[in-house]
Each structure stands twice: as C-alpha cells, then as structure tokens.
Specification:
By secondary structure, the protein is an alpha+beta fold. It has helices at 23-27, 58-70, 76-88, and strands at 6-17, 30-40, 93-102, 111-116. Strands 1-2-3-4 form a four-stranded antiparallel β-sheet, covered by helices on one side. Helix 2 (58-70) runs antiparallel to helix 3 (76-88). The two termini are 22 Å apart.
C-alpha cells in the first residue's frame, strides 16, 4: 500500500509585526509575509466530509498571528524559530517549513528567512 503525504499550506499571510534591530524598526511596525508548509500524520485524515475529523487550518494561522502579535522580535530568525517550534509541537505534525519575508526593508529586493524540518 502506498503511503500518502498530507500537507497543509498557508500562503502569503500578510501581517504587521514589530520586528527589527534598528531604532526605526523598533518604533514602526512593518509588513511581513508568512508561508507555511505542514506535513500531517495520516491519523487525522478525514473519513467523512467533516471538519471534526481533520485539522482546521485556522489553528495554524491563529498560532502564527498570536506569536507575531505577542512581542517585539529583533531577529527574523527568532520569530521564525518560535513559530516553527510551536507548530512542530503538535502531535499530529510530522514536519514544518516556514518562510517569513520582509518585503519593504529594501527598495530593490525582498529579504526572507526559512526554517524547515521537511
């Protein structure tokens, strides 16, 4: 029997975060874009068309929002790690890839940091 991989994606979640090491960044919140890829165990695969039998996507979105809004983060790496750890701790999650970008930090490019266990 072939093993299937189940994934949830949350793409382009735009949030306003207190993040950065420079004084201007500490005074002014800035836009970040969060992308998640989450591999789930097959234990929670729904057998019927019922939300009660699967993982509600909003729990992952809410987790990200709660962490972003919880405090100021100096480093993008610290914020990314905190979200990665929180989602990875759920017992039905096998792996997580998270990418967070700061699209407005430079005039000519977007910067991002990614952390993955998949």
């Amino acid at each position: 029997m072939m093993t299937r991989k189940r994934k949830i994606y949350i793409k382009n979640l735009i949030l306003i975060a207190s993040i950065g090491v420079y004084e201007q960044e500490k005074k002014n919140k800035q836009k970040i874009i969060v992308n998640l890829e989450i591999i789930l165990t097959n234990d929670t695969e729904p057998q019927r068309d019922s939300l009660k039998e699967t993982q509600d996507y909003s729990q992952f979105r809410n987790c990200v929002v709660d962490i972003v809004e919880s405090q100021h983060f100096d480093l993008l790496e610290s914020l990314t790690k905190e979200i990665h750890v929180a989602i990875s701790e759920k017992n039905f999650v096998l792996g997580v890839k998270i990418n967070i970008s700061k699209p407005d930090i430079f005039d000519n490019c977007e910067v991002a940091y990614e952390l993955s266990s998949i």
